[in-house]
Amino acid sequence: MEVENNIESNDNEWLIWSTISIIFSFLLANYYVMGISYLIDKLELNQIFKTLNMVLATPGFMLGSVLIIAIITGKTSSLLNVVKLRNWRYYYIPEGIGLQMLLFIPLAIITFATLNLINKLKPIFPNQVKFLTETSQAVQTFALTSGWTAFAILAISAVIVAPIIEEIIFRGVVFSCLKKYINTPAAAIGTSLFFAAFHFNFIQFIPLFLLGMMFQLLFIYHKSIFPCMIYHAVNNSFAMIMLLLMKLKIVEMSY
User: Fold this and answer.
1) pTM recorded for the entire structure
2) N or C terminus of the chain: which is more exposed, having fewer CB within 10 Å?
3) Domain residue limits, the chain
């Protein structure tokens, strides 16, 4: 019994340090991204470098910090265990598409309702509203004004890289850490709040939180991270398709 308690304690310590490293690297990466983006603009370098910096730096810092902690503490096997890279089923694909089709319109309604509320506050808090909208529109603005190579990199990162890294970080490590100290519903809510805040998109904060909760429910129900990654990828695919249509001027939609 004492050996089992020691093992559990070591796992707890590893998860705590991993979660702390995720938060620290998240904050550090955002300063890094802003600094490098400014430098790229100042030196008038190719926008491809800015794209790679914008889409890969923050999740790369966060995942890298977890890997470093796992290697240093000898917990690489524990990392694979909490991530739950198992129980693959082909029906995860139609399940992810079906959930996206079901929730796309309600989440879009929430987004535009939030935008409408913010716009009503514009006469009272003009500077604050401008900051919130510009921050929330950053990726959209970049996608619509960048070249096609940069857009392709952004799309690949959003549809493939982001779902893999973000699900490992949030559904895997952060949720597992919180669940050690609070009950499962509270851990799911806490993880989803962090997931929503991570995107720096105030206008879509509530939809992102609800998406995070849905990913979390899939993770808990299937005991696998694969359905979360699939649904995450499908959701981001829808977003990139909308940006593509806007870039081609087939549809017009703006915050």
Assistant:
1) 0.91
2) N
3) 2-247
